[in-house]
Amino acid sequence: MQYVLVSSCLLGNPVRYDGRSVPNGDAVLDRWLAQGRVVAVCPEVAGGMPTPRPPAEIQPGEVAATVLAGQGRVVAVTGEDVTAQFVRGAREALAAAQARGIRVAVLKEGSPSCGSGYVYDGHFAGRRQPGLGVTAALLRGAGLQVFSEKQWGEAGDCVAALEADDGR
Ligand code: SF4
Q1: pTM (whole model) above 0.90
Q2: pLDDT at 110
Q3: Under 8 Å CB-to-CB from 143, ≥6 apart: which residues?
Q4: Quick one: which atom of ligand 1 is closest to the CA of 44?
């Protein structure tokens, strides 16, 4: 069975920076939960950050890839450099995926860790820009298919296709 990595906050766990969750009901997720194939991960908690915690953004002009390469930083609104925690959390998420041979992840859109379509521009002004979070980038670089919570259907199709291939 293909396991799937899912952002913990999407499962109703109160692990977000603001101490809340963003539960996200969907028939695909419900089916996966019933099948026991969901592996929850919160990279920021896994990286050693407390909940609640100050919001953080990838610095202006930097992207997840430069953060992972040691050339960019993730900084909290307080000014604290939290790059090390973000990178550690990304590695923990990848290790959790690799431990179960996971090839598909559904992660919370917009997060500096989990975003897969957009992140915020580093000015804490609520401005989005296309890009990846640090964990999403590391997972994609390792060959995982990363979807957001707006793409449960696509993720479900991807898992089904992988299982069909495995069964051949
Ligand atoms: Fe959710 Fe990812 Fe943020 Fe954790 S790091 S609270 S899983 S979006």
Answers
A1: yes
A2: 98
A3: 103
A4: 5
Q: How far is the CA of 167 from the centre of ligand 1 (A)?
A: 33
As a dihedral over the C-alpha atoms of residue 163, residue 102, residue 17, residue 59, rounded to 10 degrees, the angle is -110
The torsion defined by the Cα of 140, 108, 92 and 65, in degrees rounded to 10, comes to 40
CA separation for the pair 155, 146 (Å, rounded): 8
Question: 8 CB less than 6 Å from ligand 1?
Answer: yes
Q: What is the pLDDT of residues 39-87, one digit of tens each?
A: 999 999 999 999 999 999 999 999 999 999 999 999 999 999 999 999 9
Strand blocks (E) in the chain: 4-7, 38-41, 56-58, 74-76, 104-107, 118-120, 128-130, 145-148
Q: Helices 27-35 and 152-167, interaxial angle, to 10°?
A: 40
* Ligand 1 atom at minimum distance from 43 CA: 5
Name residues of the chain where pLDDT drops below 50: none
